[in-house]
Design goal:
Number of strands of chain A: 12
Helix content of chain B: over 70%
Number of strands of chain B: 0
Radius of gyration of chain B: 22 Å
Order of helices and strands of chain A: EEEHEEEHHHEHEHEEHHEEH
Strand content of chain A: 25-35%
Number of helices of chain A: 9
Helix content of chain A: 25-40%
Oligomer: heterodimer
Structural class of chain A: alpha/beta
Structural class of chain B: mainly alpha
Distance between the termini of chain B: 38 Å
Shape of chain A: globular
Strand order of the largest sheet of chain A: 6-7-8-3-9-10
Order of helices and strands of chain B: HHHHHHHHHHHHHH
Number of helices of chain B: 14
Strand content of chain B: under 5%
Radius of gyration of chain A: 19 Å
Largest sheet of chain A: 6 strands, mixed
Largest sheet of chain B: none
Distance between the termini of chain A: 48 Å
Chain lengths: 258, 354
């Protein structure tokens, strides 16, 4: 089972520091960890650092080895937030690309079977031979998710993967991701703005604010009115549904009130 | 439910295989069309031959009349093959520039490489300045090559600077075009009447000075660069999904860009230094290929090369057949027949092509 730990992890772009001192030991395969925080809190930077796409201080240790910036590994797959593309490729071809790095020119039936499987899992078989440029924002997001899932990584970093999806698709995608995490022993880090989804699907949450990690743990224990006030500047209640699931109800801005 | 899913899985896989087969068929069709224009190119000229005569001269050189053999093998074939090689090289160079810069406007022409080559050639034609003191027979192409490589390297170095986006690179390229055009005008201003004529003719682009030696060099460069592109076909296609995605799939994006830019510079600079400015092919060849075959580089690469070669070869045919006995400068014909064709492709294409 894969294990990821962060020790004093920081990211800076030139002189601008966007993240510092993030410690998180013992992130294990099989769990879904939601990353929450206000816009520009450093969520994407943390993902890029873990994926090996950004440099910074501290160490990211994945499966016993330290990550080197500028080098991605097949075990760790990052889905960027921006999925807009203008390539003249069909959805099917774009998913194939995720499988074919450094490989032979020929495409095996086994590889095509994996693509068919992932299209089926995400219920987007009907998009398979549409051009990438013809897709809506939500469809593009689903295709990007397919590109990451088809690689069957040990660590999956999803940067706001559901921001353009309708309610049904959000639910389906998050359920699928959680099921795959359990079945494959995959560690999923997912940044998400919808706190109710985070509460529902994540085993743990990491809360980023002011370029730091301010809280981490069981969502039900962490997501409290006081935290929401501190991180987002909102007055909110955390209620419990009949089924036992917590949900967040925003009442207003605490910044305006002050 | 399970059977429906199984059938769909079959269709996905089957459809992909069918798509690949269709593309191979398109490539074969393009190759056949190219062979036809090549044969036509060799048949036409001051002395007109039938295609049957051309084929017999090609198949049994010793069995045909001396005149026919000399005209086909020594005069027309180097020129006709030069059209193919130059067209393929410029189109491939444009295709890879568009890929690594993620910009539909990138081409040897719009990045200033052709303009730099013209300036280098004009330096030799007007003042007899040789940028390298030896090989005086090749002073014009060598000057053109050095300036073209210099411009390509400058573009590359600038594109590596922090905060320079691919759009900025195109802007820099267009700025280079204006700069070199101004310098060229300056040279023309000072040029003698005879030198001025030579410069104007050179910048129009012409295949007529082709010989086996120049053809050999151009072909060697094309054959040298091709395996690198082919080996990187998957990575280059993936680059079009965006840098972050490509990097997260394990591609060293910076290294790939550097490698391809160096190869592309060579590929664009050599043909331009021999045949002059042929601006249209490097921009449009790749776009035509993209429209008919998509951007999977396993097909896009050969399709770009074939499209470029076919356009230039067809232009060569037209340049000889408009007025008997007169050969029009190739770049004029290329643009005049290519642009309407390109427009009609854009207007009739139902799919997005960038």
């Amino acid at each position: 089972m894969v294990q990821l730990s962060l020790s004093g992890v920081g990211v800076a772009y030139g002189k601008r520091r966007v993240l510092s001192g993030v410690d998180a030991e013992d992130l294990r395969g099989g769990e879904v960890v939601a990353l929450i925080g206000a816009n520009a809190a450093g969520k994407s930077s943390l993902f890029r650092r873990i994926a090996g796409l950004a440099a910074g201080d501290g160490t990211v240790t994945l499966g016993g080895t330290s990550r080197v910036a500028g080098r991605a590994t097949p075990h760790c797959c990052y889905l960027p937030q921006d999925t807009a593309v203008n390539a003249v490729l069909t959805v099917y071809e774009s998913i194939l690309l995720a499988l074919k790095q450094g490989g032979a020119w020929s495409v095996s039936d086994e590889e095509l079977r994996r693509i068919d499987g992932v299209l089926r899992d995400l219920e987007i078989e009907d998009l398979a031979f549409r051009g990438l440029g013809e897709l809506s924002g939500g469809q593009r997001q689903l295709v990007s998710i397919a590109q990451t899932l088809v690689r069957e990584p040990d660590v999956l970093l999803l940067d706001e993967p559901t921001s353009a999806l309708d309610l049904h698709r959000q639910f389906e995608v998050l359920s699928l991701v959680r099921r795959l995490a359990r079945e494959r022993g995959m560690l999923v880090l997912i940044s998400i703005h919808d706190l109710n989804q985070a509460l529902r699907f994540a085993d743990r949450v990491m809360v980023l604010a002011h370029a730091r990690l301010v809280a981490m743990g069981d969502p039900r224990a962490i997501v409290t009115p006081a935290l929401l006030n501190e991180v987002y500047g909102v007055r909110a209640r955390v209620e419990t549904l009949a089924g036992g699931e917590p949900y967040v109800l925003v009442e207003g801005s605490s910044r305006q009130a002050a | 439910m399970a059977t429906i899913a199984a059938e769909t899985a079959m269709t996905g896989r089957g459809q992909y295989r069918a798509l690949v087969a269709r593309r191979l068929l398109i490539l074969a069709g393009m190759a056949v069309a190219l062979c036809f224009t090549l044969a036509l190119d060799m048949a036409l000229g001051p002395a007109r031959y039938s295609l049957a005569e051309v084929f017999s001269a090609l198949a049994h050189p010793s069995a045909v009349a001396d005149q026919l053999r000399v005209v086909i093998w020594d005069i027309r074939m180097p020129i006709a093959l030069m059209a193919l090689t130059v067209g393929a090289s410029l189109s491939l160079a444009g295709a890879q520039m568009q890929t690594i810069l993620a910009n539909p406007l990138a081409s040897p022409f719009t990045l200033g490489i052709s303009a730099a080559a013209s300036f280098g050639a004009a330096l030799a034609l007007v003042f007899g300045v040789a940028l390298v003191p030896f090989a005086i027979d090749y002073i014009v192409p060598i000057n053109a090559f050095i300036m073209a490589m210099g411009a390509a390297m400058l573009i590359h170095v600038l594109s590596q600077q922090r905060g320079v986006t691919t759009e900025t690179v195109i802007l820099l390229g267009i700025a280079l075009v204006f700069t070199f055009n101004a310098l060229l005008s300056l040279l023309q201003f000072f040029a003698s009447e005879q030198a001025l004529g030579a410069v104007v003719f050179w910048t129009m682009g012409s295949l007529t000075k082709a010989n086996w030696h120049k053809l050999g060099i151009t072909t060697a460069v094309l054959l040298f660069t091709l395996p690198f592109f082919l080996r990187r076909a998957w990575a280059l296609t993936t680059l079009r999904l965006g840098d972050d995605k490509a990097a997260s799939f394990g591609i060293d994006v910076r290294r790939l860009r550097l490698e391809i830019m160096l190869l592309v510079s060579l590929l664009a600079a050599v043909p331009v230094s021999f045949v002059g400015t042929i601006g249209f092919i490097g921009l449009v060849g790749p776009h035509i290929a993209r429209m008919v075959i998509g951007e999977d580089q396993r097909f896009f690469l050969p399709a770009s090369a074939l499209a470029g070669a076919a356009i230039l070869s067809a232009s060569s045919v037209v340049s000889k057949s408009l007025i008997p006995g007169l050969i029009f400068p190739i770049s004029i014909v290329t643009a005049l027949i290519g642009v309407p064709f390109f427009f009609s492709l854009i207007m009739t294409s139902r799919k997005r092509s960038w």
